[in-house]
Every structure is written in C-alpha cells, then in structure tokens.
Amino acid sequence: MQEIGIVDTRNIINTITEKYNYDFSDYALISFKRRLEKIIDHFNLKYPDLLITRLAENNNFFEDFLALLAVPSTEMFRDPSLWRIMRDELIPSIYQDSSNFKIWLPNSVSGDELFSLAILLHEMGILNKVQILVSCMSNRSIETIKSGIFSNNKLEISSDNYIRANGEFEISRYITLKDGILKRDISLIQNVVFFKQNVFLEPVPQSIKLILFRNKMIYFNQTLQGRVYKTLYNVLSSNGYLVAGTKESLSSLYGNNEFIKISKTESIFKPRI
C-alpha cells in the first residue's frame, strides 16, 4: 500500500472542501490519512495527485470516494449485551412514553446496525409503529444498504451475536442466499427514511427519541467531536437516549455537562435537563 504524506492529505482535504463543500479538516488526521491510502490502493493510483485530479474532475467518482472513505461496521448485533438492554429496557421505556417514536442512525455505511435494529423491533412487534431515519454521507452507501447485500464473512459472527442478544429465531430467517450472494430481508426496512448528510451530520431531523451513533467519534478530532455532540444533544427529546460506542467518551469541549451516563456497562446517555 502506498503511503502518502501529511501535506498530500491536507491537499486532498482542501480539494474536497473547495469542490464539494465537504470539510474533512477536523477528522482525526492519521486515521483519515490511512483511509486515503486504502482508496488510492483500491483505484490503483500511483500518485496522490491523481486522486486529487479525479476528485476535481469527476462528481461520480466523488460518490465512490465517499462510500470507500466511510468505515463499515464489522457485524450485525455487535455488542450483544447492548441489544439485550435495548430490547428489555431502553426501547420499552421510550415506547410507553411516546406517541411519536423516532430513531436516528447518523452516518450509516453498511446497514448492519440498521438491519439489527429492524429485526429487534420486528420481534418486539413494534417495527411498523416506529419511524427509523438513516443518514449517509454518500448516495452509494444508501444504495448499498437498500440492496440488503450482506458480506459472507460477517455471517458466522453475526449469527452468534444474534443468539447472545436473545434473538427469537435464527438469523438465517432474515437472510437468503441466491446465486452465491447473501441478502437480508429488505421488507424490514421498507418504511425507513433515508437521506444524505454532510460531514457535520447536516441536515438534522428533530424530536428524536433514540440515536445510535456507535464507534464513529474515534475518527473525529476533539473540535468535531464537540460539534457533533452538540448536534446530537439539540435533536434529542428530553426523554430521549444517545447510544455511543463503548470505547468512546464524551468530549471535554462539549458533552460532559449536557449528557448523563445511565449505563455502567454500555455507553448509553440521556440529555441533562
């Protein structure tokens, strides 16, 4: 894999900002640089300048670039204990207290979290009574999620996770194999609202009861973390919840005084009123 320098990385960021108004300058620089190196390798580009040229000249290429830049989740029902808490405690408490239950999944990539959530709500008997909003940085990601395509190498661990999350059946109930391709049951997401967002999670929905934004903040620097936490806080209802990654902590710039951690084992937060 070809390595690129910090100067090249900043030049690529500047090109994207000027051409598309997507500002990645507050992404964690080292991890962003590694993603760029993978993209350059994927397209077999010999020099970073070739990436800059293609970004500047080809809007369709930028959509492919955004889809590759995003880091996909590794499996469905990741952290099974969280899904048990959501099934047994979190979602029932919100559902009983809300006639307008909206769940938002910002910055989605592969659909693993969405299909996990949809299966959970389906087995609880409330899938059609909850509005799920999914935002992605690229139209390519939206197309991928809607297709239901599922990676073969995720099946075994996802099945194990589903069992540990106290799923009612077997995960194969929701996945079919046709012509060597695994596909998830897209009827589960037929009522999901998809929309495109920018780096700062804009545009933002309102009156959200539950936000699943896990393992995303680690790719932001502290400035962007603070801005994103502020956005999430502002769109959450007073009785809503934010589910963050288990290894992530609230930003010292924003979050410590705005959220209360309500779970010792999982990163579940409630807005401080």
Percent of residues in beta strands?
Answer: 15-25%
If you consult CATH, what is the topology of the largest domain? Rossmann fold
Task: Determine the N-to-C terminus distance.
Answer: 49 Å
Report the sheet with the most strands, covering strand number, pairing sense and barrel closure.
Answer: 7 strands, mixed
Based on CA atoms alone, the radius of gyration comes out at 19 Å
CATH class of the largest domain: Alpha Beta
Q: What structural category do the secondary elements indicate?
A: alpha/beta
Work out the number of β strands: 10
Query: CATH superfamily of the largest domain, called what?
Result: Vaccinia Virus protein VP39
CATH architecture grouping of the largest domain: 3-Layer(aba) Sandwich
Order of helices and strands: HHHHHEHEHEHEEEEHEEE
Average pLDDT reading: 90
Strand order of the largest sheet: 6-2-1-7-8-10-9
Percent in helix:
40-55%
Description:
- With 273 residues, this protein is an alpha/beta fold.
- It folds into 2 domains: 6-69, no CATH class; 80-271, Vaccinia Virus protein VP39 (Rossmann fold, 3-Layer(aba) Sandwich).
- The chain is built from 9 helices and 10 strands.
- It has helices spanning 6-20, 29-42, 48-57, 59-69, 80-96, 112-124, 139-147, 155-164, 222-235, and strands at residues 102-105, 131-136, 149-150, 175-178, 181-184, 193-196, 208-213, 236-244, 259-261, 268-271.
- It has a 7-stranded mixed beta sheet with strand order 6-2-1-7-8-10-9. Strands 3-5-4 form a 3-stranded antiparallel beta sheet.
- α1 packs parallel to α3 and α3 crosses α4.
- The termini are far apart.
- The mean pLDDT is 90.
